[in-house]
Fold this protein.
Amino acid sequence: MASEPAPPPDGAPALTRRQLLKTLGVAGSILALEGPRGFAESAAPEASVTDGAAGEMPMRALGRTGVRVSALCFGGAHWGRLQSDAEAIRLLHEAVDGGITFLDNAWEYNGGRSEELMGRALQGRRQQVFLMTKVCSHGRDKRVALQQLDESLRRLKTDYLDLWQIHEVIYDDDPDRHMAPGGAVEALLEARRQGKVRFIGFTGHKHPRIHLNMLAREAPFDTCQMPLNVFDGTYRSFEQEVLPVVNRRGIAALAMKSLSGNAEPVKQGLVSPEEALRYVLSLPVASVVSGIDSREVLKQNLSILRRFTPMTAAEMQAVRTRVAVFAREGRFELFKSSDHYDGRIGREQHGLS
């Protein structure tokens, strides 16, 4: 199933520094920075849980962007670790042919290999997908961010991105760094004005308060990526604290770490892959980013998505209650309380480690 291809945007109007700083302040308006493609074609947040016909890949609204994407997003991190380039490219082609239209990546994944491989795999297929990658400047300035964007575009062999997100907003001072004059948010807005990116957002997996701090500045984000899984409802819950905020604003929620960052809960028999994915897909999210590094995982995930039916509220509560004792202290969500899952390549290259 093909995505809804769209050309690069004309770009939003240029902003004065005074306008930008006003917008990034708490008193700013989200709509002040919106270009002609931003929130114009609005869709109610509830539309994100509307899926397609049985047996097909569910397609969901990407917030209020007017775009629909596959409910499963193909993760580029695990995929980029495959040793065989040919095998990796075949796997991505099978995913797209199977109905996955949303592709995830980041500037620092596997030292750039993930982007380079994806760029090769997308030759002749670029218009079939909604392509996302992330800037990994980790608090460095606008210049570094825009340099990374140009490198990402070159690796991905495209002249625009459908979505560009700030990667790993995970430290308490990250919102201040990114929102500062000359920071990463200015780079996002400049790239959108230039037509190099269509939509913008940010990601993070550490603490809900950091996400809420980013959102409190009211920058015009189209997407917000966060960890959501059966354990999250009990410990530092993004589901409880962040998801309602982005849904009220029409910002598309992108879920990640549906298996808690690894398969340990599955290995211990606490949840099944289908239960884990079904739980997250039953939340008001646009798409779930999934690490797919083999044909077996791809086939499993495609099968789950094609027969997906939402859990009832009672079913979801029953799952949360059942795993609550295992969710205490974040033992299955170490990405929230340790650096085990934090990217290091960008920090090392920019002297932040």
Summary: The chain has one domain: 58-349. Confidence is low (pLDDT under 50) at residues 1-48. The CA atoms of residues 92 and 295 lie 10 Å apart. Residues 142-156 form the longest helix (15 residues).
